[in-house]
Amino acid sequence: MNIGIIGSGSWGTSISKVLLNNGHNIKIWTRDEHVFNSLKNGENPYYLPGISIPKSIIPTLKLEEVISDSELIVLAIPAQAIRSIAEQIKPLYSNQIIVNLAKGLEISTQKRVSEILDEVLKINKYVVLSGPSHAEEVARDIPTSIVAASNNMELAKIVQENFSNVSFRVYTNNDIVGVELGGAIKNVIAISAGIIDGIGGWDNSKAALITRGLAEITRYGIKKGAKKDTFSGLAGLGDLIVTCTSQHSRNRYVGEMIGRGKKLDEIIENMNMVAEGVYTVKALYEEIKDLNIEMPITEKTYEVLYLNKDPRKAIHELMMRELKDEN
Ligand SMILES: NC(=O)C1=CN([C@@H]2O[C@H](COP(=O)(O)OP(=O)(O)OC[C@H]3O[C@@H](n4cnc5c(N)ncnc54)[C@H](OP(=O)(O)O)[C@@H]3O)[C@@H](O)[C@H]2O)C=CC1
Ligand SMILES: O=C(CO)COP(=O)(O)O
Q1: How many domains does the chain have?
Q2: Residue 8 CA: which ligand is closest?
Q3: 63, 212: one domain
Q4: Which residues line the pocket of ligand 2, CB cutoff 6 A?
Q5: Do 168 and 266 sit in the same domain of this protein?
Q6: Ligand 1: does its nearest atom lie under 6 Å from the Cβ of 78?
Q7: What's the CATH number where 181 sits?
Q8: Exposure winner among 15, 165, 277, 316, fewest CB in 10 A?
């Protein structure tokens, strides 16, 4: 297939390698001339240091080139950039399959990526690819399993067949809502898990956070129409585990730095990659109050990041909530 990748950060670059290895023709769009020149030289040191990028992956600075030449378009940009990219590709878009890699909710609308694309592009060929898949490991062909979810199982199967290989195994799923929400909200829980790492590296506390984090992701998801089972799969529990525990996780890192006493602005300023949970937690905070959904870890994470709450006080408050049944 001719495949166009929009976004040349760590995940866009890494998935380009997977797809090239699978025999596809790949063009990758970047808006940055330095990244463009690096890719031409067979590397992307800013986003994927130490990895060689085959020169047959063709970089371009022209968005129209990746759209007009492609049978399938991959979106590998942050969730907050989806609406503006969708507006830009609208005049060029001719109903190709769109595969979204972004994991986040739009701050101003609380919308998932598929809802934004539906609004802007009236898209009917949408697949979301999500699951435990750090770019740094995928780029090194480390065995990875992931989920392709769509309302149209034919499309999910096209993605499954074209993206899978011996080290990249794709399962299909028909629950877009669950897969998108699992990927978006685990980033918030990973920040809180990182906070625990930064404060003391406490195993008991982190295991509890992951478990109760999954409970609140599931609670929110079900209220939004997701299937409960999705959250015990790769896009739910699987991604939550990897993001809360990995040395590669950007979201866990933000939490760890907060736990060590650094300020959010300072942390973000010094990071070159996106930590989606920093934004998704904003989208969720107001909404969960309005919808009356119990998400205490999400609330406390917001309060620590944006209301200056001492992380130790937040942990104390979580521990001192009214005692209740686990289910
Ligand atoms: N990295 C990973 O391991 C994984 C990431 N994801 C998800 O994939 C998405 C992308 O992540 P990742 O590749 O890590 O992010 P990076 O921060 O590594 O790269 C982001 C890319 O998006 C571009 N970009 C940022 N803002 C805009 C904008 N407003 N308009 C157009 N392009 C923009 C950047 O361009 P520029 O360089 O010019 O700023 C860069 O090419 C996120 O939602 C993330 O959660 C999912 C699974 C794994
Ligand atoms: O989604 C991811 C892994 O599946 C990436 O997580 P981070 O953004 O926290 O690195």
Answers
A1: 2
A2: 1
A3: no
A4: 103, 132-134, 187, 190, 239, 242-243, 248-252, 275-276
A5: no
A6: yes
A7: 1.10.1040.10
A8: 316
Summarised one tens digit per residue, pLDDT across range 59-92 is 999 999 999 989 999 999 999 999 999 999 999 9
Find the helix or strand (DSSP H, E) in which 97 lies: strand 97-100
Q: Cα separations (Å) of 54 from 20, 67, 102, 204?
A: 8, 21, 24, 43
Report the nearest atom of ligand 1 relative to the CA of 8.
41
Tell me whether 0.90 is exceeded by the ipTM. yes
In a domain, 325, yes or no: no
Sorted by sequence, the CB contacts under 8 Å of residue 1 that are 6+ apart come out as: 24, 25, 71, 72, 162
Residue 285: domain span: 177-319
Active site residues: 186
Which amino acid belongs to residue 21? N
Decide if 117 is inside a domain.
yes
Contact 278, 301 (CB under 8 A): no
83 annotated as a binding-site residue: no
Mean pLDDT of the chain: 97
Residues 146 and 196 in one domain: no
Q: What is the mean pLDDT of residues 251-259?
A: 98
Element spanning 218, H or E:
helix 203-223
Does residue 22 sit in the same domain as residue 163? yes
Q: Is residue 229 part of a domain?
A: yes
Q: What is the average per-residue pLDDT within 98-115? A: 98
| CATH code: domain of residue 116 | 3.40.50.720
> Which ligand is nearest to the Cα of residue 188, counting in written order?
2
- For the full predicted model, state whether its pTM sits above 0.95: yes
Whether 230 and 215 map to the same domain: the answer is yes
How far, in Å, from the CA of 243 to the mean position of ligand 2?
Answer: 5
Atom of ligand 2 nearest to the CA of 251: 9
> Among the atoms of ligand 1, which is closest to the Cα of residue 134?
3
How far, in Å, CA of 189 to CA of 277, rounded? 8
